[in-house]
# Entry
Amino acid sequence: MLGLIVSGVILLAVVALTAYVVLIYNTLVSMRNNSNKAWSNIDVLLKQRYDELPKLLEVCKGYMQHERETLEAVTKARSMIAAAGSQDSQLEAQNFLTDTLKSLFAVTENYPDLKADEAFRRLGTRISELEEQIADRRELFNEYVNIYNIRIAQFPDLMVATRFNFSPKILWQINPEHRRDVNITFTS
# Structure
C-alpha cells in the first residue's frame, strides 16, 4: 500500500513538473512571437518610410542643388536598408537613415521656397508621422524584447530556455551620435 502511495506521489510530481515545463515553454514561445510581431509592425512602417523617401528627395533636389552631400547621404542610407540582411544590420541602417533625415530637414531651413512647396510639406508631414509611429512601435518592441530577455535569464525559465535554444534578442537603441537635437520646422 505504501509503495502505491509513493508511486502515486512520484507520478503526480512528474505530471506537475511536466505541466510546469510546458507552461514555461509556451509562455516563452508567446513572448518570442510577440517580439517578432512587434518587429514586423515596425517593418511595415519602415517600408513605408523607405518608399516615401524617393518622392521627398525628388521634391528637394530642385531646390537643393548645393546640398548634394545631404541628398547623397539619404540615398546611401536607403541603399544600406535595402542591403541589410540581419535584424542588427537593419537596426544600424535605420539609425543612419534617421540621422540623415534630421540633417535633410535641418538643411531645408535654408530654402524658404522649398518649405512653402505643397509637395514638400505634404511629404515632410508624412515622413514625420511615420517617424512618430516608428518611435511608438520601437518602444513597444523594446518592451516585448526586454520582458522576453528577462524571462529567459531568470530561474527556472533559464533551464527551459537553455534546453529549447531560446536566445536573447537585441533592443533597438538609437546610437548616441544620432541623438543630436535638430531644429526642424515645416512652416515658413
